[in-house]
Amino acid sequence: MPEPAPLPERRPEPDIGSGGPWWRPWLRSITRGSLGVALGFGFAVALAVSPMFVTSFGELLARTLFIAFVLLLAFVAVQQLPDRRLPRWMPRWAVSLVAIAVAAPLATMIVYVVSVRGDVAELFGNEARLRGLLIISVIALCLGMLIALGAQLRQREAESRAQALRFELERSRLERQAVDAQLSLLQAQIQPHFLFNTLANVQALVESGSPRASAVLKSLIDYLRASMPRLQGGPVTLGDEAQLVRAYLQLMQMRMPDRLDWHVGIEPEALARPFPALALLTLVENAVHHGIDPSVQGGQIEVGGRLEPGTLRLWVQDSGVGLNPMSQPGTGLRNLRARLAALHGPAASVTLSEVSPHGVRCEIVLPVS
Fold it and tell me: pLDDT higher for 313 or 178?
């Protein structure tokens, strides 16, 4: 049973009590981008309200930059709060807006109290100062909320993309597991079915006292020895597959010595290439059972292979009865095509073609890195 997909990751909670100042995780979360936004915010507000104030632009810029950084710290503080400390009835984005709504007028008040050296009576007794305090507070409140909403939206989009990526990675992992299971099933279905028949033939030869029994049994032993890497799940090369094909054809020639001739000729450069187990043997089995066996006079099977630019080309050609236009591809060929498609994608192919005057040629083409 496949493992369940992981739940979306929760926001990591700062380890406040494990050493170091409590505010250090908040400062670490301030990025260059957020600092740039705060600087742009302060400069834009100072430039916009400068014509309405008699205060110098430098002093006005210092005030707006201070307010911008206070709003940034308020926003970052809410983002760093663990979920258990947030109100259950209020989402994080709403808490951020409340923090901005509180921080904007409070930071503006601090700026103006500092500008009058703490003389609150002078501040509230001066209509021009109060009007400036109100203007900057409203602008800071409106722009701060807009920027906070935009940041929250970008963060939600980033979290959605990250979650989609996690789900995609999990889906790919499950698909790979399904492909591995399918390959195991297909390979089990492609295992040669002639072993029981061969053992029955050996039994019959032994019981009848035929001198061919020993040769048939030796060929069967050779075949089983060549099959051992596949039974143990080890890596398989084209050379291993060619050895298995030879052992199989020797067995078949023992069974019909006057009706089967065969030849295996694969370029030596190609023998060391990794190769899907039993893929070539499947074509040889088809050639024997559907080409040579039904033919009264029998025929010849030629197995060949060579490396071409970017591809490995293999073929099995027989001079048997040829293709039957009314027949459908057997289970072995369907499974082989499915295996090669799962392993190599659309670059792999298995094709059948007629051979004149009679016979079939089957080719496998695999991509070579």
Answer: 313
Place of tokens 């019909």: 256
Structural domain harbouring 234? 191-367
Residue 189 or 352, more confident: 352
Specify whether 218 is located in the same domain as 363: yes
- Of 183, 209, 235, the residue that ends a domain is 183
pLDDT over threshold 80, residue 6: no
